[in-house]
Input
Amino acid sequence: MSAHDHQLDGHLPHEPEKATLEGRNKILGFWLFLGAETVLFGTLFAAFIALRHQTLDGPTPDHLFELPMVFAATMILLVSSLASVFAVQALHQHKVKQMIVWLIITILLGLSFLGLEIYEFNTYVSEGHKLTTSAFSSSFYTLVGFHGAHVAFGVLWIGLLIAQIFKKGLTVVTAPKIYVSAIYWHFIDVVWVFIFTVVYLMGKVG
Amino acid sequence: MMNRWRVLKRLLPLMAGMALLLSACGRDDLSTLSPQGPVAQKQFDLMTLSISIMALVVVVVFAICIYVLIRFRRRKGDNTIPKQVEGNHTLEIIWTVVPIILLLILGVPTINTVFGLSKDYSKDPEAVQVTVTSHQYWWEFEYPEYGIKTAQELIVPTGRKIQFKLASGDVTHAFWIPSIGGKIDTNAGLGTTNKLYLEFPNEGVFRGKCAELCGPSHALMDFKAKAVNQASFDRWVAAMKAPVAMPADEKVKAAFESKCLTCHAIGETNAGSAAPNLTGVGSRLTVGGILYNDEKSVEENLKDWISHAQTIKPGNQMPDVSTNVKYGPGKGTTATGLTEEELDGIAKYLAGQKLEY
Amino acid sequence: MANDHSAAASEPKRRHRHEGPQKHVVAFVLSLVLTIIAFAAVSAGEINTTFTYIILVSMALLQVFVQLAFWMHLKDRGHLFATMGIVFGIIVVFTMVIMALYWVWW
Amino acid sequence: MAAHAHTVKRYRGLMDWLTTVDHKKIGILYLIAGGLFFLVGGLEAILIRIQLIKPMNNFVGADTFNQLITMHGTTMIFLAAMPMLFALMNAVIPLQIGARDVAFPFLNSLGFWTFFAGGVLLNISWFAGDIPDAGWTSYVPLAGPTYGGGHGVDYYLMGLQIAGIGTLIGGINFMATIINMRAPGMSFMRMPMFTWTIFITSALIVFAFPVLTVGLVALTFDRLFQANFFETGNGGNAVLWEHIFWVFGHPEVYILILPAFGVISEVISTFSRKRLFGYSSMVFATVLIAFLGFMVWAHHMFTTGLGPVANGLFSIATMLIAVPTGVKIFNWLFTLWGGSISFTSASLFAIGFIPTFVMGGVTGVMLAVAPADFQYHDTYFVVAHFHYVIVGGLIFGIFSGLHYWWPKMFGRMLNEKLGKATFWTFFIGFHLTFFIQHFLGLIGMPRRVWTYLPGQGFDTMNAVSTVGAFLMGIGTIIFVVNVIVSAANKKPVADDPWEDGRSLEWSIPSPPPEYNFKQLPLVRSYDAWWNEKQKRQRRNAAGRAGRTDPYAFAIDPSARHEHRIVRSGAGLHVRPSGRCHRRARRHLWQHVLPLRVRRSRLPHRA
Ligand code: HEA
Ligand code: HEA
Ligand code: CUA
Ligand SMILES: [Cu+2]
Output
């Protein structure tokens, strides 16, 4: 990144994330990356759909899944997505403190989602539903686990960005990162919509 | 720089190939180019149709290419700038539409044949049902209607539809009898069992191959398909069901029972599918699918096989009879599991296992 | 496309597209409702399976559309290539789901 | 290679090369790495051919042979062909679009090193003695934990996973670069054809590689953690792997060939001194090939048993690809038509490409006929097909591109005599090796066989094929000699050494300075540099004082990087609808193509 893009004419433009070529590149590149992620998750979904009835002697989805827990997880992630929207709004209004608050809320919700998922996996394993149990279990843990890993990465990433904001403030360099991480966070939410639909709800239906 | 002669030279490989095509169509019992049954014939017809269309395309492209290269090559000292053409609607439409037409000509019979060859005769009482199970590196053929199992050599009656049901006992293989019709994978596991029907109008022996990489001896996983007339087929079925005597010599019998029948079956002894059923091995055309009994005697081939199966077919599943030494010429040694005497006895006994049909 | 951003940046006075939280809250409520419908359809039980599937899939698709459009700004100007990327990804995924449904077991 | 001494201005030395983020240097790194892997893969090919020279040969054993074909296929495709394409795109794309670098220079270097690490890891298996041996397709169960013992396949999985991530990074980078970094005035429909093909190739990478990633992860889980994706005994499905591999694998083959199409377009146009015929139909064809490329994967699985509906569908879908590809072939032929063709090494390879690729393409269409593919599948007919399109297509394309852009990359000419010797030995060797393999397949020789019994009619043809492979080896060696000779040659090279260069890279010094363009060029048409030269010539002819400044068509010399984006915003604008560019004839294809180009709003200078 070159030196001259830290501040344009001394004040922050309305949409600082798009003020520099580097910022615009970042946003565009990130969207392309999300295109790749769509295919990545799509392949995991395809594998899951192909194998979801292969439960062998292991537990079947309608025995295993508990909808209230899934509903809670869904709500947590949905609200966290809203929080990150608000963070970006604050960014556009250059309200750094507000932005950080929203980001922290996002992270906390993300963490509680993760906690819930770990608890869930634990319960399943104790019920005899391990990665090695059946083709269904393998594809379940891989799909849901990949999503969980994405949440964990998001939490870590946004956490680091907060630290960077504290250090460097909101500039045309840091703004694109915040913006992009928010898009990432929404994407995780979007993937979750399909997970609760295809894995849990359809699993209950049969 | 490139003169006419050079251009001709470029075509040489093509011409040489064409000459080869005309002169050598391969063995009648092996080549896809000499179809010996209606299935291979239909496939061959499609192949000829497509080759003709492709030859046309290639000729047109080559002709334009050669003309252009000769006509428009830069002469020495020529510095004129050619006219900068952007494109030409008429031409572009032509070379979009003409290929579409050619593909239609090819596509319609393709679809017809796709559906035609996927007919299922498993409910047809006129058809012979055969269940094929592939193993590293041998083929098992079961005739559920007759309750018999054989290996390496598929015996079928001429003039009837043969309906195959194919699966694998281990990794993916592919069942292929080029001159009769090809080819279908044998997949492992339930839920992906395949079906294929073939017809053998002529009596004869046709070479079969495994066509999917399945391990070190994939190259050697050959089998034979022998088409005989209905009467002969019936005799074969009867012979397969007849009881089989054990070796007369007690020592040989003991060795055979303790060292061979643990995996193999012969006659009514049925040890399952771990190894080829040896009933009638003596009258098979090959031992292990690749040692031809018309080049050496059955007995010699059997001896070779039993004493160093691992050298002959690297990595096959018949290990502890020969030594487990890594294969390669000279590396395999004679059997350690059998004495010379037992080996001779067993080979002789097995060579005598002939079926009259 | 990217250059739109530059146009926007050079005219900072232009009224901005996503001022105020109302739209985002509306998107949130929409998502909420769609989620609840989906969960309700399953919890209710006793509905025809195929029908439930159709409800579930349409709720999911609607929700994804809402989130992509509002929260991820795909409907905004300057997202031509982003949209193309996502749409093409979805096409690839769609073919793979067909594959998983029809061509893996037989 | 000492030739690149001039690309560096201040520092030299190893550290600079290890840490560089300059696209030109990264291009050279890709070329060195890809070239070395090509030699390794070629050596493996030679060993394969020696083993097959006669029936029941025992030059290498069965195990080693399977390792050789697996490593040959994997190395050639992932570690030789793709990196050499990345070499060309790194070296050329920013120059062709008039940019000072790629969108993400650091990621560019990261992508290279990731690919390199993956490649090295894969090849360490040779020294570890545990070598992948299940074919480059790694079909399960053979590659699964039950039948694929040892760690051979694990090297394949890890190596490709890591190398694949590097490739994905590269794909994203070049898409972003081409979308965002074009010089003012360079609308999409003014982009050089090579840039277009790289753009589409990068898109293919972005959408195809994640599929491979997931497949590799699933198989890794099966092998290392006893997961059951493909374990048929535990409810897994082996056919699922085939699907996943080919959903990636088929687009992969177009990832390989599209850049070669781009190279051929540039070279043919340059050396016949003619504008590329049917530019917009070329663009449309490229897009269509890529799109269809995702819909045809099951043509590798006709014999898997998917049933007549799938086989019929995929047959027809596959055949359709012949149409846009044919459009390209004929456009090239009609670019040559009426041109003034000079036969340099680069143009020989490009011209050799056309008939050769067509031969490979039409056998592809033959393979697409599902019932006939029941006979061809997994035979040497398929081997012949794909070497015709890959070696006769892609490798010819790479050779062509290397001879063409070598002076731009290194500031040295390659020797034309040696170049032509490379071409003729390689070309003749190629046809000798692979033409005959069609017939081997037809008369019943399966592929991936480590040996064959005598008396089946395979013997002579296999021997001929092996001889051809040696000729190709000689051709490659001549090329290496040429590289060394050219490095020793100290003669500097003109900016536009072929004199007929058409795109922007020929308007700047060879090799370009670190920042590429002193002033950013203003692009007024397709073939910007050519048209500029023509204009000057006309001016000279009219007796007016021609401007000799090579940057005459650059925008305001004081223009700063940041400014140009603002200024050019409107000019680069692409919308879903609107008017066609003023100068481009309204083209048939443009009615279908979503990208209509709005007329540049930039002030035109007289
Ligand atoms: C660069 C790589 C490349 C390219 C470009 C292609 C191009 C094509 N390929 Fe090929 N293919 C491979 C690499 C490639 N392939 C590889 C590596 C394999 C084997 C993988 C493995 O199993 O290991 C393979 C295997 C393969 C198969 C599977 C065979 C089998 O295993 O049984 C099929 C089947 O349909 C196929 C078809 C095609 C077709 C229709 C095209 C088309 O795109 C070709 C289109 C071009 C033309 C047709 C020529 C020009 C057109 C004209 C002049 C117009 C007029 C023409 C007509 C009307 C016909 N290919
Ligand atoms: C980009 C891809 C690519 C390229 C360029 C090539 C190039 C070549 N290929 Fe290969 N090939 C594949 C991709 C490719 N191949 C794939 C994917 C397979 C399938 C694998 C599988 O089944 O899984 C395959 C399989 C394959 C087979 C079939 C194996 C089998 O099925 O049993 C054969 C046999 O002839 C073969 C031969 C050759 C030859 C002679 C070349 C020649 O063009 C090579 C020419 C180059 C050289 C000869 C290099 C010369 C260099 C030296 C002599 C110097 C060496 C020195 C040092 C290393 C220091 N290839
Ligand atoms: Cu069995 Cu190859
Ligand atoms: Cu393909």
